Amino acid sequence: MNAEKRKRLEAAGWRFGSAADFLKMTPQEEAYVELKLHLADALEAKRKTKGMTQKALAARLKSSQSRVAFMEKGDPSVSVDLLVRGLFALGVTRRELAKAV
């Protein structure tokens, strides 16, 4: 958005900020959400790099394809533990995991 348009909107009472500002998240909550999203992105990227389907990954995790889809979307119902387990099931090393976060 250009500066002039933003200035007009602010003059009309609009406020700008991040999703964390809008949701009134603490810095710790924001960091946790970002961590989960980075892990979810890494999971999807690694799965695709290996040419694996969500269904195949689900079989390795003894889970369902829909659960893997939720994992890759960063769904709030998915734990960090499950994301990490998924990455390890794809052969990600601890070093690669550290780079993902």
Biggest sheet details: none
Arithmetic mean pLDDT: 93
Radius of gyration: 18 Å
* H and E order: HHHHHHH
End-to-end CA span: 29 Å
Helix content: over 70%
Low-confidence stretches: none
In DSSP terms (H or I, runs of 4 or more residues), the helix count works out at 7
What best-fitting shape do the alpha-carbon axes yield? elongated
Helix vs. strand class: mainly alpha
Strand residues, percent: under 5%
**How many beta-strand segments?**
0
3D structure, described in words:
This protein has helices spanning 3-11, 19-23, 27-49, 54-61, 65-73, 80-89, 94-100. The protein is elongated. It is built from seven helices and no strands. The model has no long low-confidence stretch (mean pLDDT 93). It is mostly helical. The two termini are 29 Å apart. The longest helix is centred in the middle third of the chain and has 23 residues, at 27-49. Helix 3 (27-49) packs parallel to helix 6 (80-89) and helix 4 packs across helix 5 (65-73).
List keywords for this structure.
single chain; 101 residues; mainly alpha; 0% strand; elongated
Write the layout of secondary structure elements.
Elements: H1 3-11, H2 19-23, H3 27-49, H4 54-61, H5 65-73, H6 80-89, H7 94-100
Helix pairs in contact: 3-6, 4-5
